Amino acid sequence: xxxxxxxxxxxxxxxxxxxxxxxxxxxxxxxxxxxxxxxxxxxxxxxxxxxxxxxxxxxxxxxxxxxxxxx
Length: 71
Prior knowledge:
Layout lengths: L2 H9 L4 E6 L7 H9 L4 E6 L11 H11 L2
């Protein structure tokens, strides 16, 4: 990630919920996690066994996870 982008992310003061699937090739957990580490107020959740659509296959997990990220 470019240094300017890192600086801007570090200045962001809003909450930043991040949810990805363990098998997500489009937003892989390691990339989402690396971005999340740059944000001061972030909550990062990874759904085991899920791909790019973490709500598919287990809508209850998604609903509970999303609700917890919005608090």
